[in-house]
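Tokens in:
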């Protein structure tokens, strides 16, 4: 079964074709970073307009790259939420219209389920059950995963998401949007000098709170001359604080659930220092860790095609309604067995 995947929830227009036995066939992505850069963040209306311009040409490109005809496509998966409403509607309306024209089923996929299942696209995929750490621009969640659609939330951020904390801290350090990868680059030039807290690790529980790290960044910045080295040292301290906090909470989640598999996904999971910290922790716990390849950590069409393909295979489809939900708790998703 060939499934076309469409992702348009935020600032990336991404399309892929996944085959349920042959695997990933083709994928492509257009990043809107140049559009939003001068505003220092995503401008929702510009995002929607750019998705409208780019989506259909990208679909044509991917279908051609896959050496397929539209009539070969058996189903369409699109990101139905959470995300920016206008941006989601572009993907939803396009997917629904194509599915109607091609007389095939379409399904709205949860963006974070897409991230969670991205490691399934790799050669050595994780087996259920596992603990998933989802760290993106909008979410920080620890989830006990028993199967597709069987998600039990163990803990989440009470304020800023991990990616949001990276982006806001990067802005304070004078780095351009999107700040996460730039902050990581700057941190690689820094050294141990400032000590930032590991928020909420001194009490039991699996909740996160990253917003306090902004105050630490601001105070540290004001205590220096704000030279390039000062900023690199602050970036270093911030990054280590996030990495150690995530690692402490993941260790707790593994111990609490008595599971031995950790899956880490979402844009922030591309961060090498965070990967290294988590890797070291699971080794000590005699557990295993799985990440998507770096390009599938951040938003992409392949993860949506994969997640949708599993639901379509299980016979799940939706009616002709153009379904998009800017807010959508993962625990509301159907299990694969519930048809
Ligand atoms: O998953 P994603 O592409 O989009 C959302 O669903 O939000 O995640 C984007 C987030 C942004 O906050 C970005 O700064 C962060 O992931 N990010 C990183 C890195 N690459 C992307 N944060 C830290 N280090 C990175 N290497
Ligand atoms: Zn995402």
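Residues out:
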């Amino acid at each position: 079964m060939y499934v076309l995947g469409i992702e348009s929830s935020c600032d990336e227009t991404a399309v892929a074709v996944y085959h349920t036995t042959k695997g990933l066939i083709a994928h492509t992505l257009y990043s809107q970073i140049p559009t939003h850069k001068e505003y220092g963040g995503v401008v929702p209306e510009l995002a929607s307009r750019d998705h409208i311009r780019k989506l259909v040409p990208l679909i044509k490109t991917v279908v051609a790259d896959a050496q397929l005809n539209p009539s070969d496509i058996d189903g369409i998966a699109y990101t139905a939420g959470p995300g920016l409403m206008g941006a989601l509607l572009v993907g939803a309306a396009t997917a629904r219209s194509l599915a109607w024209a091609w007389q095939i089923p379409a399904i709205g996929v949860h963006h974070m389920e897409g991230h969670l299942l991205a490691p399934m696209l790799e050669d050595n995929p994780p087996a259920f059950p596992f603990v998933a750490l989802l760290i993106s621009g909008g979410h920080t969640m620890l989830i006990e995963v028993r199967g597709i659609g069987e998600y039990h939330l163990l803990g989440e951020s009470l304020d800023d998401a991990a990616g949001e904390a990276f982006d806001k801290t990067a802005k304070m350090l004078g780095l351009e949007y999107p700040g996460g990868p730039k902050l990581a680059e700057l941190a690689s030039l820094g050294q141990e000098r400032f000590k930032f807290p590991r928020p909420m690790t001194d009490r039991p529980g699996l909740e996160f709170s990253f917003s306090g790290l902004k105050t630490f960044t601001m105070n540290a910045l004001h205590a220096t001359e704000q030279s390039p080295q000062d900023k690199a040292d602050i970036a270093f301290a911030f990054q280590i604080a996030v990495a150690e906090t995530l690692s402490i909470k993941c260790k707790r989640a593994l111990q609490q659930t008595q599971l031995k598999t950790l899956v880490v996904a979402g844009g922030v999971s591309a961060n090498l220092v965070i990967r290294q910290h988590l890797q070291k922790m699971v080794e000590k716990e005699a557990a295993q860790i799985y990440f998507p390849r770096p390009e599938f950590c951040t938003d992409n069409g392949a993860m949506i095609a994969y997640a949708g393909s599993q639901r379509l295979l299980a016979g799940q489809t939706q009616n002709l309604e153009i379904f998009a939900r800017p807010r959508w708790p993962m625990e509301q998703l159907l299990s694969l067995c519930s048809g």
